[in-house]
Amino acid sequence: MLRPDDGAEGLLLLSNMEQALFRLQQGFELQFRLGPTLQGKEVQVYTNYPTEGHDYDRLRFHPLDWVYPNRPEDDCDKYCRLDLTVAGTYQYYFCCGNKEKVSGGYIVVDPVLRVGANNDILPLDCISSQTYQTKKLGPLDKWMDRLKVTKETGYNMIHFSPLQTVLSVSGGGYSIVDQLELNPDFSPDGKTWTHVGDLVETLRRDWKMICITDVIYNNTAVDSEWIHLHPECGYNLVNSPHLKPAWLLDRALWHLSCEVADGKYTEAGVPALIQDEHHINALRCILWQQVFSRLRLWEFLQVSVDPAVEQFRQLLQDGSSRVRSSPECKTQLNLVQNPQHQRFGNTVDMDSALDVFTPHSNNSMSPTDIQDCCTSFRGRLEELNSELYKETTKRTEQAIESILRSVIHDRVADDGTKLGPVTRRRPLCPRYFTFPFEEMTFDEEMELMEKKDKARYILAHDGVVEGNDVQRNLAEPGSEVYLWRKLVCHNSTVKLRYGDKPEDCPFLWTRMKTYTEIIATVFSGLCLVNCLSTPVHVAEAMLAAARAIRPNLYVIAELFTSSQLIENVFVNRLGITSLMRDRVLAADSEKEQCWLSWFGREPVGAFFQPNLQPLIPDVAHTMFMDVSPRNHRPIQEDSVYNFLPNAALASMACCATGSSRRHDVLLPHQLSEDHLYTCWNSDAQTHEQINLQTGILAAKLALNTLHQELAVKGFSQVYVEQLSEGVMAVSRHCPSTQQSVVAVLRRPLKNPDTDHVPPLFIPGQVKEVLLEAQTIVSNTNSEDEDDKNVRVPSTVEIKEHIQLKDSEMVKRADMVSKHNTVVQEIVLDKFTPGCIIIFRVTLEPESQEQLGSLRHHLIQFSPRYQSGSLAENSTPLILTKPLMSIMSSLTLADMNILLYRCDAEEREDGGGCYSIPSWSPLNYGGLQGLMSVMAEIRPKNNLGHPLCENLRQGDWMLDYITNRLLAKGGAVAEVGSWLKAIFGYLKHIPSYLKPCYFDAIIQGVYTTALEAAFNFMSSFVQNGSSLVKQLALVSVQMCSVSPCWVPPTLSPHLKDATHSSDEVTNHEDQHCVSLAAGFPHFCAGTFRCWGRETFISLRGLLLLTGRHLEARNIILTFAGALCYGLIPNLLGEGGSARYNSRDAVWWWLQSIQEYCTMVPDGISILNCQVSRIYPNTGGASDQPLYDIIQEAMQSHMQGIQFREIHAWPHFDHNMTEQGFNVEAGVDHSTGFVYGGNRFNCGTWMNKMGESERAHNKGIPATPRDGSAVEIVGLCKSTVRWLMKLHNNGHFPYAGVNIHTEGQTYSMSYMEWDHKIQENFEKNFYISHDPQDPEEVHPELVHKRGIYKDSFGASSPWCDYQLRPNFPIAMVVAPELFTLDRAWEALNVAEQKLLGPLGMKTLDPDDMVYCGVYDNDLDNDKFNQAKGFNYHQGPEWLWPLGYFLRAKLYFAKKMGNETYETNINLVKNILSRHAVHLERSTWKGLPGLTNENGQCCPFSCESQASSSATILEVLHDL
Q1: Which of 46, 109, 270, 1348 would bridge 265 by S-S if both were Cys, CB 3.0 to 4.6 A apart?
Q2: Contact 227, 436 (CB under 8 A)
Q3: Cβ atoms within 10 Å, residue 1323
Q4: Contact partners, residue 488, CB within 8 Å, separation at least 6
């Protein structure tokens, strides 16, 4: 994500993101866009982000308006936006249609912290925080003296523990006595929170120091006066009666503890001083016998059987038996929990009892029946009570073991706390509840439990449970933590009970809100202590109150979880700015390495990301602590040689960092309660004062200064390397200046035999040693050995900003070459544990100059390259021209060379696509081949990809790109020259930077080329959506001039035909593009140019994109190849053309019609001269196009019969003899075009059987002979058009002549049109009437309300198959169809044929349907072997375009409501194509998919007709 001043935008696709974390800075624009499943639906986005002029209310949501950058009907690019200027956490959700809420998520906006008199911004990654135990600061007047240590050692944040009176909690925490009052120790002269606020503001303004403090919401101190005045704020035995059994157990254990302390059980093996396993085993027996057995805890769960049975009997006698709905309705007997949790207080849900234990019938029950029912009921109750007893016994055993583990830790274990003998002050086990009464007997306490005026003061202590669900409240009903002794209890606290809302405990909510507002008024931020134990909804409300006072509130917390998803929940809901992570928790260097890389986000040499990019889930911002505030273990447990390296490690993290005062001055133990922090004195000579010679403070100053400098200057990239055991190197790199800072640190060895420090290889040149430091340990003064407050007698020796030659740790530094990069080899000496050395590194001078020049030339692509750029004295001439001016001189045919050309096309030209070692060849020789791979690599910064490795190892790829373009000549070669010049800089920069700058160059050239290409296209493309533009580029992809494949020559009378000059002969050759059918299978040689595919695609790829000249030339080229009244199926080079396609000529005629209609003065094409390859008998070699059109129409009306010229086996080895016979004509009675036979397939469904094994070789899978529905539609469209042309004087022929039996008859185009119109539905529509007299074969009908696929097929059942061809006729000749019939048929097609990307080619209900195409599979299955099912189920994309266009056309006639609904359907379907295009490395749509949209490996990856027809749908929208 780019910074706000770069105009950065985040793109968030709407989907379920509630557990994902999205962090953004203020100043960003966030856009919400529709994911593919939502396009075409009525979606509304809501958020609680405050509108301008309104305060934030987390419960108030408002809708966002949609922005349409193109057209209102376009869902691809529309978005909602938020300009993020207010810090906090915000929710969004979206509704779809009538659904109230579909899904949603959170956005966390970071606060902006300001310091100093000028309110300078303190970036979050600059933070260096030092933690203080506030009670050790003394009176407020002395704080500045004691806090000066923080200022003088380079910190910019102070983290205070609570400023209220606190009680210590076991484990190192604390609880607050009075949240609203300042600790009186700080204010003997009456200081208030206002004075604290003044101090904090002074620190912020004068010291540039941010201050934060702890807040605790989940508990209060047991000594809090207010909790005893308002016991409803805690969990007591009145508002939480479910705790009664737990309290009884707690008291029983207390009395047992007192008896053990008094020696009562010494003879039983449990003395007051418990020391060994024998004592523990004896204690286990006593706990069972004297505590749990006597308490009979199971009775709190059981039912009193006799009363329950009597109640049941009475209900039966009163006639309350229930009739079950069925004999199988055996419901479970339900127990009802007694709300007061009394012994045998649970009851039975009598409805369930009656349901289970009464007969099925409605008959009245006799006394015997009643007795039988009661007996069964009693038996089941006794079973339940027995089961509850067994369950309680099992849980009791677990509780006893839990108690014993606690006793072992506290009194027996060597690594435990060793509390000594059991006493009343140190009982056997911790007390879970307060007892604010005089001592009394256990029996008296049991009575006390039922007295509400007393029981309300018995409050539950707070605590934690290891492994517990962190989002579950331990004291709420349903939790048995207190009962079964699972709690690690903090008995100086009382757990607070908020309820679900403020009304549940008004006093507590009000008090804590006031407490929060005090903190937010005084401090810039807060630390949520015990965040996991605080109810999330409570913390949400309190932080909302805090942000109302201080919008840019800095919030930190420490979450002790191992789940990022759980962390995300808390960060999202609370808006936590930074999560504290303790370095000590990184148990090994591998985890440290992972953490540091994680915090840095970007590796060294990371790619430059675009300004507008998808917003991807993030990780929480981190405050990396060398020691956490909650980590109170004694310092002497860690080696003194660890502290300096650990501090260096933390300072190199690309995030906030933190430490504690005691850590920096190396105090071996916690300070005693009454010991105050010492003051700063630069000339200190005693332990009572501190200066830079104390502990590691001198190094801390240097490290904090460095950490802040690295963040401010953009050293955002991180690389971590473990050089050897104990030795680690961390690099921070600035991508704009290419400077680096490398820190090497050494910690004590785990394996003392490993003492070797390997050499360090640093790319570039070391300019200076920023810091060189080592830990110095003096001899211990024996007189002070027992004084735990004496600092460890150690300090650091440091040197700053020295040259390599002056370093005592660098033995040798040589410039060497490694991995094609100049590096500096550093050999370290005297680098002992506790040492660090930090280098400032720049590129060596030549690389620096080359990189600066490269960045200078990249500024034309983005201003981000301005930083670090250098203007050179002598720039290559080609680079003085802006790239756009060069690109503007290219034609779209040139763009095809620059951007595309697959391997087959490149090989025709003597080359091939670049092959990446250990990977695969690129899809294209042009830039798209690279861009497709980089699009996968760039967002993930996958610098280990083979393409990146290839760039680092050598310049082969660079040379391939330039040499390829230079060899093409012309304007393309000029782009090659430009690239060659700019690659000259790239070749001379360090290899680790080559991938990112290569990507920057290629990306810049590519986007410039696209911009130039779109400038050549129509306004429909230029103003269109991203999907329109992507599809339009397929026109550039497919249309090229092949040096080896030359189309038939156009007439010399065409003055504007494109020509090029042969550099050898100086001869002018025609330079016309041809349109490939698809990549990679149909793009070169004989199989490049297909008549049918060309003219299905021509309207979409050439006419809609504005490529009118190319469209005209292609139409005329095929006109010149007309023969027998047909255009070629395969054009070849004219001489090898095949005329075995019955439908291609009709697609050609439809394209001429579209050209005349869409192109300005398009009608003039009819008069264009055409050079004929095969002139008709007696005709001229050049004829106007209208004559050739008439020839095609006349030939069909007269009838076409011929045998293919090259009809021999090696021409088509799968064809039978009869298959080479071509026939077509017109039925004079209906006007329908017909043709074909059962041995060939003359339409687009042209699969010929190939398997000898399955006996389908030579048999067409889909002959579709007779009158194919789409051909009849195309013919009708043409006849209608020619009729109008003639009437308007643009076409000289009124009709066609028929020569038969020596006579000539005429049929006008008007008559022909009328015949088709009159007979179409009569012969093609399958009505719902089984007795329809027009139906020739009613026995073959298996679906009604549809249109036949053909009429008059040699196999009549084929006519009745449901296929996606009739919508084609609907689009080109909608007048043939009755509205209601058409709409019903389209709905059947939608239900049965519509797939995710295409249309099923056959009804799935058909017996020969098979949706998976595998041309390699040869088996015994006739309908499947060798891909026989090519058009018998697989889902083709191009027919989908016609289906959607037909849907839109007829939906509009059905009315506005239907039309709007179907527009949404179309948008939703097209969104899938947008997704496929975005992900496709070929940047096209496939020809077909297998069933349900699954990838078909035998399909073209990019098919011309697929993209063309989808583009037509977008145009219709």
Answers
A1: 270
A2: no
A3: 19
A4: 171, 463, 464, 465, 466
Of 679, 675, 674, 732, nearest in space to 708 by CA? 732
Cα–Cα distance for residue pair 306/296, rounded to 1 Å? 19
Mean pLDDT along residues 134-149:
93
pLDDT in tens, 1328-1346: 999 888 888 999 999 999 9
Distance CA 648, CA 742 (A): 11
CA distance 1472 to 1073: 31
Q: Which of 667-676, 1199-1208, 1440-1449 has the highest mean pLDDT?
A: 1440-1449
In one-letter notation, the amino acid at residue 639 is: S
Residue 627: band (very low, low, confident or very high) from pLDDT cuts 50, 70, 90:
confident
pLDDT interval class at 909 (50, 70, 90): confident
Four-point Cα dihedral 238, 243, 245, 248, nearest 10: -70
Pair of tokens at residue 51: 């509108």
Q: In this predicted structure, what is the pLDDT of residue 783?
A: 46
Half-sphere exposure of 377 (CA within 13 A, CB side): 33
Q: For residues 440 and 448, give the distance between their C-alpha atoms in angstroms, rounded to a whole number.
A: 10
The rounded percent of the chain whose pLDDT value lies above 90 is 70
* Backbone φ, ψ for residue 957 (5° rounding): -65, -40
- 8 Å CB contact between 803 and 773: no
**Where residue 65 falls among pLDDT bands split at 50, 70, 90?**
very high
Structure-token pair, residue 456: 């309300």
Q: Which residues contact 1397 (CB under 8 A, 6 or more apart)?
A: 1435, 1437, 1440, 1472, 1473, 1476, 1485, 1486, 1489, 1493
Backbone angles phi, psi at 40, to 5 degrees: 85, 5
pLDDT tens-place string over residues 1410-1422: 999 999 999 999 9
User: Which ranges of 656-696 would DSSP assign to H, the alpha helix?
Assistant: 661-664
Q: Tokens 């861009």 sit at which residue?
A: 931
Please name the residues in contact with 687: beta carbons below 8 A apart, sequence gap of 6 or more. 678, 790, 791
Average pLDDT of 1161-1171? 95
pLDDT of residue 856: 95
* 673 three-class SS: coil
For residue range 635-674, list pLDDT tens digits in order: 545 678 888 999 999 999 999 999 988 878 876 544 455 6
- For 732, the token pair is 């921070």
d(CA 785, CA 805): 41
DSSP character at residue 865: G
Beta bridge pairs of residue 1074:
1040
1080: cis peptide before it, omega within 30°? yes
**Which residues are CB-neighbours of 1356 under 8 A, at least 6 positions away?**
1336, 1337, 1340
Output phi, psi for 1470, to 5 deg.
-65, -25
**pLDDT (0 to 100) of residue 672:** 56
Question: In whole angstroms, what is the distance from residue 1173 CA to residue 1471 CA?
Answer: 44
Q: What mean pLDDT comes out for the span 1258-1287?
A: 96
Q: Kindly provide the residue ranges of all beta strands, DSSP E only, lying in 353-491, ordered along the sequence.
A: 462-464, 488-490
Q: For the chain, report the end-to-end CA distance as a whole number of angstroms.
A: 34
Task: State how far Cα 206 lies from the chain centre.
Answer: 44
Tokens of 1018: 């129509």
Residue 785 pLDDT > 50: no
Q: What is the 3-state secondary structure (H, E, C) of 1426-1487?
A: HHCCCCCCCEECHHHHHHHHHHHHHHHHHCHHHHHHHHHHHHHHHHHHHHHHHHCCCCCCCC
Q: What is the pTM of this model?
A: 0.85
Position 346 confidence tier, pLDDT thresholds 50, 70, 90? very high
Neighbours of 1365 (CB within 10 A): 27
3-state secondary structure of 860: coil
